[in-house]
Amino acid sequence: MRIAAVGSALAPHYYDQDALIAAFREHWAERHFNLERLEALHRNVLVGGRHLALPIERYRGLDTWGKSNDAWIEVAQEVGERAVRTALDRAGLTVADVDCLITVTVTGVATPSLDARLMNRLGLPPRVKRVPIFGLGCVAGTAGIARAADYVRAYPDQVAVLLSVELCSLTLQREDLSIPNLIASGLFGDGAAAAVVVGAERPAAGPAIVASRSVFYPDTERVMGWDISEAGFRIVLSAEVPEVVRRYLRRDVDAFLADHGLGRSDIAVWVSHPGGPKVLEAVQAALELPAEALESAWRSLREVGNLSSTSVLLVLEETLAARPEAGSAGVMLAMGPGFCSELVLLRW
Amino acid sequence: MTRGEILAVVEQLAREHVGLAGSLAPGMRLVEDMELDSLKALTLAVEIENRFRILLTPEIEAEIATVGDLVEAVARLLGAPDA
Questions:
Q1: What are the domain boundaries of chain A?
Q2: Residue A138 designated active-site
Q3: Alpha-carbon distances of A134 from A107, A108, A113, A208, rounded to whole Å
C-alpha cells in the first residue's frame, strides 16, 4: 500500500500577519490594556500570514455558532472538492476509482456529513464507503493516513481517499479574550488536503506505508481540545503540549522504529505536524534532530500557520514533491487531543 | 492603594483567571508555589495590566519571582509610596 499522491486547497482569502493583527487590535482594546503584549503574542508564533475561509469583514457577522457552522459547510465543500480533485489528478486516478472516502475535521459539523455532500459534488460512485471522523484534532492528518492504510490492507485492490478540512478561523470565539484563544487567533489558518492511498495490488508511485502506531496518554484530557458552549468551540490549550512531547515522543518513536528493526538515524525524512514554534522545538529536541530535519514543517508554519489536521498533509505534499531518494525511510507524526500521538512509517 | 489592597486584588484575579484555590502570601513563588505555567503566568499578567491599567514590561517581569515582587512592581507603577 502506498500514498499515491497528496493535493491541497488553501482557503481563498489570504492575509499577512500584519493585516490580521491590525484587525484584531481594535477588538482586543475592548477588554485589554497592553495591546503590545498581545501583538507580540501573535508575532511570537512565527506565522507570516493565514488563508481564511471568508473575507475578514464577514467574521463580525458570525455572531452565532449556527452562522459560523453554515459558513464552514459552504467553504469546506469548496476546498474539500478542490483538494480531492488535485490529489486524484496527481495520482492519475478519477472519482470513479475511489472505493472509500475518509474525512477528518475538528472545526465544523454536518449531517449529512461532509463526505456525503462531496459524493454529490464530486460525482463519486454510490458504492463508496464513507467514514466521517470528527474530533481527533491535529493528530487526524497522520491518523487518517493510518486508517486509510488499514482499509486498503483489507482491500488491497482498492483506493481510499483521506480528506482533511480544517477551517479554524470559523471556530474563533469573538467574546473569548483569554490567552489560549488569543494564541489560537494568531496561529491557526484554514485549508484542506487530500491523500490518495492505494492497496498493494494497485500500481502507484509514492511512498509505501510500512506500518502505523497509535499511542494514547491516559489522563491528559485537558491538555488540548474544545469546550462546547452556546457560542461553539472554545479552545482548551494548556502549556503542557511541549512538555508531553518532551516526555513521550522519543520513547514512542524509538519503540515503534525498533519493532521494524530501525532507529532514528535510519530515518531520512521527517513529516511532522507543525503545531507551533514551541511544539516544533520540543519535537526537534526530543528526537535529537538537526534543524533542517523539520524544515518543511517550519516553512509550512511560517507560510500558512497551523491548519490542525491538514498541516501534516501539507508537509507531506511538499515532501512528495521533493522526491526523496528511493529506499529512504520516513516517519509521519502528529499529536493531538486525547492526548495521543500517531506515527506512520514510510518507505520510498 | 496600599500593598495589602494590591495583594487582595491580585489574589482575586488569580482566583478568577488561573484557578487559585487558597490564599496568596508575599513569600510565595509564582512558578514553584503558585504552579503558574507559561500560559497561566501570561494570563495573570494580562489581567493585572487590565485591572490596574499598567504595563508590566519584560524588564519588570524579569525581576518578579514571588508574589511580593509582583505586588511591589504594581505598587511602584501605581506610584504608591515606598513600603
A1: 2-198, 208-347
A2: yes
A3: 9, 9, 10, 26
Pick the CATH number of A2-198 from 3.40.47.10, 3.40.50.11930, 3.40.50.1000, 3.40.50.150: 3.40.47.10
Q: Residue A178 is nearest to which of B37, B43, B49, comparing CB atoms?
A: B43
- Helix or strand holding residue A306 (H, E): none
| ipTM of this complex | 0.84
Residue from A117, A141, A45 nearest A336 by CA? A141
- The answer to whether the beta carbons of residues A307 and A329 sit under 8 Å apart is no
pLDDT tier, A41 (very low <50, low <70, confident <90, very high otherwise): confident
| Domains of chain B and CATH, by start | 3-78 (1.10.1200.10)
Q: Which chain A positions have a beta carbon within 8 Å of B49's beta carbon?
A: 32-34, 37
Buried b (16+ CB within 10 A) or exposed e, A50-63: bbbbbeeeebeebe
Cβ of B49 within 8 Å of Cβ of A239? The answer is no
**What pLDDT digit, counting tens, does each position of A236-270 carry?**
988 889 899 999 999 999 999 999 999 999 999 99
Catalytic residue among A100, A138, A168, A340: A138
Write out the residues of chain A at the interface with chain B, using a CB-CB cutoff of 8 A: 31-34, 36-38, 41, 178-180, 183, 237-240
Q: Cβ–Cβ of B39/A37 closer than 8 Å?
A: no
Per-residue pLDDT of A107-159, as tens digits, reads: 999 999 999 999 999 999 999 999 999 999 999 999 999 999 999 999 999 99
Domains A2-198 and A208-347 share a fold: yes
When CB atoms are compared, the residue of A32, A36, A239 closest to B39 is A239
What are A181-226's pLDDT values in tens digits? 888 989 999 999 999 999 999 999 999 999 999 999 999 999 999 9
Task: Report the gap between the CA of A39 and the closest CA in chain B (Å).
Answer: 13
Spelled out in words, what is the top-level CATH class assigned to the domain A208-347?
alpha beta
